[in-house]
Amino acid sequence: MTDRQPAACWLTDMDGVLVHEDEALPGAAEFLQRLVDRERRFLVLTNNSIYTPRDLAARLAQSGLIVPEEAIWTSALATADFLKSQLPNGSAYVIGEAGLTTALHEVGYILTDRNPDYVVLGETRTYSFEAITAAIRLIEAGARFIATNPDATGPSADGPLPATGSVAALITRATGRVPYFVGKPNPMMFRSALNRIEAHSESTMMIGDRMDTDVVAGIEAGLETILVLTGSTRRADIEKYPYRPNRVLDSIADAIELV
Domain range holding 102? Predict the structure, then answer.
């Protein structure tokens, strides 16, 4: 489906591509090693804004996957990168965990509940009514509304959990303000990732497991896309979408020979 030359750089989603419920998927370790052996620049992407890259690198290592923290790009990092480009050294009221607060601190942002430039909503397992109320009041007072990603739910061992998109909808209903979502499927996240590794869209491959986030964002960012069938999207689902990935593979193991 493509006449492009072998990709010089690679972006790959994490959950559903490399791991599933903290278990490495078949071929993931070999794929990552092939990237290293061939000296390909790459990033592992995730919409999860809870953890820092160091935390995620440690979690992947426990699954048997060696990924240096500098090769991990989260929606929290993409959000911080975006805010730095929009308003350097600004201020934000943050609902989120260490992954988000650390990313914002590292780009020079002040975290405050006093007249912040932005309200930034991220993933957390402890959403509080008080924090959401404060966010609503700050937005109504003029703070701009940003969210790390639009995912409505997140996985857990007991079933789906409400995630950033669901809480954003609550705040939107209360304020009438729709947030700017930085994470997938916004191609902004991919463009910031490309900048991070000094890559060009014409020579970069994106691997994901979701048509509605990974593939569409990859297409809109000008990347060649691979859909693997080890995550959310099944082969029968592909026909429902008006766009197509460049390749459909059973798993990441089938991508090793493409590196």
Answer: 76-181
